[in-house]
Amino acid sequence: MKIIFTIIATLLFILPGFGQDNAQFIKNHPGIHKVVVTDVLQTTSYTYLLGKENDKSQWIVVPKIEAKPGEVYYYQGGNEMTDFKSTQLNRTFKSVLFLGGVVKEKSLAKEKTDSLASKVKSNKKIEVTINPAEGGITIAELFSNKSKYAGKIVKIKGKVTQFSSSIMGKNWIHLQDGTEYKGIYDLVATTNMDVKVGEIVVLEGKIALDKDFGFGYFYKVIMEDSKVIQ
Disulfide: which of 88, 174, 176, 226 matches 205 by Cβ 3.0-4.6 Å? Predict the structure, then answer.
């Protein structure tokens, strides 16, 4: 998901002033949160961090990372969910804050812009050739004529390259079919169904443009409430 780009862009902008006292740093940049990890829980795809900021503790959830108590992380934004139940942990959390990522204090202090940015996981283009579904379109066709398909239900066949479940009440699919338009080759779709990375599927859903879910989740083109029909 895109939240981590917002985090890093902001942190890199203020990086030159990081040498000042940490307390003053946070005071000067109230949108940045600093937490000390007091507990870590791991699941297959996510890491749960219990972070303490001043006298307040908050569970935050990020894509799986190596972490341990005592480490210090910085983050910005996030999407809070209350009474959230983790099936893998068999536990209900009163409050969790979902983030696209966190930045370790050591990284902030010592890394250059290019090396820090390289830590961001990107959905790279894969080598695949998939013929369109019957009555469907390609990803290249969608992005090259996005206004034509806005608000319409379309079918797209492709390979699942990334799948994230239960974020903001939705499952998120990244799909590629081997086509691209001006360097865009990846389609994001929301769904309530489960798929596996590597599967070839046909998704059917409504196309939305300039969709802003908040907290860094912004998409120029997205397929919403999609269904796997094949």
Answer: 226
